[in-house]
Design goal:
Two copies of one chain form a homodimer. Chain A is an alpha/beta fold. Chain A contains 22 helices and 17 strands. In chain A, the strands form three sheets. Chain A has a seven-stranded mixed sheet with strand order 7-6-8-9-11-10-15, with helices on both faces. The first copy, chain A, is elongated. In chain A, 65% of the residues are buried. Chains A and B meet through helix 7, helix 8, helix 12, helix 15 and helix 16 of A and helix 7, helix 8, helix 12, helix 15 and helix 16 of B.
Chain lengths: 630, 630
Amino acid sequence: MKNNLSELAKLIRYYSLVSTTAAGSGHPTSSMSATDVMTGLMFGDVLKFDLENPEYINNDRLIFSKGHASPLFYSLYAAAGKVSEEELLSLRKFGSLLEGHPTMRFPYTEVPTGSLGQGLSVGVGMALNARLDELSYRTYVLLGDSEMAEGSVWEAMALASHYKLNNLAAILDCNRLGQSRETMVGHHTAIYQKRAESFGWKAIVIDGHNFDEITEAYKLAGEQTDKPTMIIAKTLKGKGVSFLEDKPGKHGTALSKDELEKALEELGEVDYTIKGEVSKFTGEIPNNKSLISPSASRGGQITNKIQNTSIQFTNYDPVKPVATRKAYGNALVNIFPAYPNMVVLDGETSNSTFAETFAKAHPHKYIESFIAEQNMVGMALGLSRRGKIPFVSTFAAFFSRAFDQIRMSQYAHANIKFVGSHAGVSIGEDGSSQMALEDLAMFRTLLNGVVLYPSDPVSAEKLIAEAAAHNGNVYIRTTRKEAAVLYSQDEKFPIGGSKTLKSSENDQVTVISAGVTLHEALAAYEELQKEGINIRVIDLYSIKPIDVESLVKAANETKAIITVEDHFAEGGIGDAVRAVLSVHGKQYTVNSLAVTKEPRSGTPSELLAYEEIDKNAIIKTVRQVVSYKL
Amino acid sequence: MKNNLSELAKLIRYYSLVSTTAAGSGHPTSSMSATDVMTGLMFGDVLKFDLENPEYINNDRLIFSKGHASPLFYSLYAAAGKVSEEELLSLRKFGSLLEGHPTMRFPYTEVPTGSLGQGLSVGVGMALNARLDELSYRTYVLLGDSEMAEGSVWEAMALASHYKLNNLAAILDCNRLGQSRETMVGHHTAIYQKRAESFGWKAIVIDGHNFDEITEAYKLAGEQTDKPTMIIAKTLKGKGVSFLEDKPGKHGTALSKDELEKALEELGEVDYTIKGEVSKFTGEIPNNKSLISPSASRGGQITNKIQNTSIQFTNYDPVKPVATRKAYGNALVNIFPAYPNMVVLDGETSNSTFAETFAKAHPHKYIESFIAEQNMVGMALGLSRRGKIPFVSTFAAFFSRAFDQIRMSQYAHANIKFVGSHAGVSIGEDGSSQMALEDLAMFRTLLNGVVLYPSDPVSAEKLIAEAAAHNGNVYIRTTRKEAAVLYSQDEKFPIGGSKTLKSSENDQVTVISAGVTLHEALAAYEELQKEGINIRVIDLYSIKPIDVESLVKAANETKAIITVEDHFAEGGIGDAVRAVLSVHGKQYTVNSLAVTKEPRSGTPSELLAYEEIDKNAIIKTVRQVVSYKL
């Protein structure tokens, strides 16, 4: 049975209008401009999707990068019979699965969108996944024209053509009007075409309201052999209702009841009974592919470790220091047999982050992402949603480039392992631009995010394995400098734990740290011992979740807490420790040593001293604290 | 006197090699590929720059977006006689002005770079500034080819041509090799040319080591009337030394002493005595332009308020609630007579952030930045360095898109006023993608950053004025919802202060808040009064710096502190308050109410209740705290 695209498009426009009017808010005009291209995609025998099994691994994927066109998104599935009119009218209401911008609560959302310019990166990730898995599914991404100003889109454009992703198609809803004014390019579709072609894409300009042209464009896209396709659809915002069509000032505003009445009159008679059929993939897929993707994103109990394989960790010589960043590279190779669904991405820093150790061993599982961190994180999100465990690395400082993408990934319930190297002033001579001093603060804000900070190579490898086993986003901070081995091979490092490295019955003060400053604390311990001052030293390798019990114990048993971190004063270890202790009502003091002066070039030792987070600063602070009258 | 470009280039290569070898680290090969194009720029009578007056307002500007080519940057000025060989040999040493990547300590640095892809945005800002001030200076930006993968570059490309910035030229050092491998485009300069042209630029491909072509290219760039120019220079990494030229694996590595000896042999005889002359601007500039730009970036005592004008604030009717975002728009117009050097930028949200109020009043001082937040912040940095006070607005959530640019702006000692609207879950139906829940955490990390959070329209306007008067970066968080007027017109709001709105001699508990939750706290106060429970309520409008005195007083005089914020639990008001109180050693408890559940669509009231940060949650917590045995 062949769908009647015009009738379906009319029904979908009806749905977009009534749902937003019922909500009293939303983006009907943005939905109406893209209705025909999306109707043609979903009901024109283009998209192959099993509506009963949204996570089926060989479904085509459809991402609304233009997330505010959510009324259209929901209406498409309503036209397919999967969303009732009642549900549609619950749009934007508290408790509804149909939120203002698509979230994971709605069963067909690939990833939450609404922060523009991010969807194409996710699409690139999903298209790459198809390649990795030798699956034939295609990935479609709907973009608005306003968001074409976002640089992240052009990162994705470059990567997609570089990787010859002919299984990826972008549909640009070129309706000319942004939120407050016309876009820079307006309706000059030839400009988008030139730009897309210069970035290595096949670019097709069409009348976005002509179903013949729409259908032909999807066909052409499907015929590409070595490049992705951008369908540039010239459209009218508010198409279908004369007083909305191409009119400025109508963005993000639902129609009043009166306006709705007029609009529906114009739309004409809607056949509410029609349902669009969505084609399904009916071919063969390679053996050994599980039918449902092992994605934890919809809350299923997923075991990441999909083989009963014990991990062979590197046997570090206890007397040879090894940087935790180096241990990261080793760990990736060591855990791989237990996690064959892992992939590794890096932003052209793999010889610094040591992602290259893995890349050399398993080049087909390594995705060079070049200097484009936003897109790298977006690709990781797409891969995560399709069941991969992505390990994503760059200098920790450069994850700040992708904070918006990282932020959105939390709402996708993603399973990304972010690994940031070159933390702190202790990177030395390269200076401030390369120093991550706010990364702990950034990653601590993620809902249910895990933040780990290993201080030696043994714990680093163990924590990488813990991260792989964990369901959810994890951030691991690694260090440039070599680190002395602190732990024996059989030590375990559960997420949420800590290690008390030094303690006695006469500890005056507790020093809590991680990374390079933990080693400073241990050196301080030795010197203070000679003066007869005992300090407890805690390795806070898990900053979030945090070992409440050990912290409270230390606060109760010692006079004061000192935290030390190669990080700014805000948002890191100091704040994390205080958040635990302040609710327990006991008298305590937390002195925090952190980076408070503008950093600069120098040797690591000079900089740690300059920032007063080194052994001497710790000793000085301990002495001060011990001498307080408490 | 005409400079001998070849001889100067040789001297500069010599300088790059010896300085990095002395440092034991650095990027000589990256410096050597760009040496000829930069020599041609600086010594070929192209750049017009008064070396004695780096901040002269009509100097041409030169930005090294490719910040790791710092050895070249310093060497250029050495060849001009402004840096001694001794200073060059101090490269990367602790205390040197010549850091690993350029910082403000070096007198000729326009902005610190080193996080790639940011320099062109700064250049766009500086070029726009020339337009605003009707000055004839040109802006030149050196880019590497690896960083062309950064989306931020393409944001800048689009904006620059949109604004027809013919006074801007980018030089692309296309040396093919990135850090760990070849770039995506390699030496296919025609691809960059196509891309640049599709983005509306004049694009010239040259042999980057041929001085005739270099000179001709700069001439052509200077002749453009309506578009910026990109000079795409095909170069060899490590040019000048055969065992380095175009060789992979040589990135970011200084030569050993032996290698240096061989390299210098190859370079041949260097004339150490030559000095390059740099041309200066010799024409007229319009009257009333002060000769030194009022930029605070080099630490001078600058008064932002450059006219003795008192500000006429809006007289808000005490019984009519007005959203703080609306007050922001009013404030911009009200302070403008006192700050004629302010400019306003917004990322295509001006009808939501109310930047449009200013845009309508002073369209020539408003810069529409479209949906490209990274570039918007970069432009603001460029404008700030040239003496403007940029007010930059978008949804607070979308500032996370520009965190790397914001991070770098702190090292520029910039004077940018970031204003983020639509904070928190209380934006309502739009849902999580639009909700800023980590912005306070982000901005709190900035060195010397100011973080303000007004709760009513009166204080909002006053704080905007305080922000304008303040020297340095400021972040102001505004709210979507209408807010009841809390203050009288004559109230003052110094940065670092707070307001105790409710207090008595029998306050049991202190509730500290700002924004929408402050109003919830005030409502809780009323109800608790009826139960005979007195609470103190503090408006923490200045989160950083923070009112230590009032907080300590409250902690001493009441049983416990409760913080409430429409923000995630990490990094915001709770952490800020705890950081103050924990060093004072008194017994206290801080209970923090914050957003801990994944947010969703709903009405503001429903969401505040759902997240347990509303009046009822505050009342419940107060009751719990009061009933503790303390």
